[in-house]
Specification:
This protein has 4 helices and 2 strands. The protein is mainly α. The protein has one domain. A two-stranded antiparallel sheet has the order 1-2. A hairpin with a 2-residue loop joins strand 1 and strand 2. The radius of gyration is 21 Å and the shape is flat.
Length: 165
């Protein structure tokens, strides 16, 4: 819990043009809501990311079963895990950033973490096989990558600027 040194007084008027952060008095101590939001923001954003991946997984499950049976379901699960785990780690890096330089570094590390596993898997599969042997897996992987990329980028921006809702 982050505490502010001065107590909140409703009689004080902020200067014109000054935007003060919202505060709440809890047993005599002012608590900064932005700091509290940032403290639990990673878990909320990670929950959104996991829910989106599980939702897409459930939408694609009948297609995977129809297309390749149990092997299709395994391909779908591996593609979801390959894209979800780096997305969660990337969100953690972004949520730990506090100043502007760390935020930029966190976003760059996040981009590398998100891109590296799917790219290396696609590269390894292209070097290993010929034809359309792994075509459905690569399609699942790219679909999960695009969904997690879009959602994780949105959530990372929300983590950096928590007051802009």
């Amino acid at each position: 819990m982050f505490l502010v040194e001065r107590r909140v007084s409703y009689r004080e008027q902020p200067p014109v043009g000054h935007r003060e952060r919202k505060s709440v008095t809890v047993s005599g101590t002012a608590v900064n809501l932005a700091a509290y939001w940032r403290e639990s923001a990673y878990l909320r954003c990670a929950t959104w990311l996991v829910c989106a991946v599980v939702g897409l997984l459930m939408l694609l499950m009948p297609l995977a079963i129809w297309n390749a049976g149990v092997v299709g379901v395994l391909e779908l699960l591996v593609a979801a895990a390959v894209c979800l785990l780096p997305g969660l780690i990337a969100l953690k890096f972004t949520s730990q950033s506090t100043d502007a330089n760390q935020m930029l570094f966190g976003l760059l590390i996040s981009m590398g973490l998100r891109l590296f596993p799917p790219l290396m898997i696609c590269l390894a599969l292209s070097l290993r096989s010929t034809g359309d042997q792994y075509f459905s897996f690569i399609c699942y992987l790219l679909l999960f990558y695009m969904v997690t990329l879009a959602l994780e980028t949105y959530l990372s921006v929300r983590l950096i600027r928590p007051n802009d809702r």
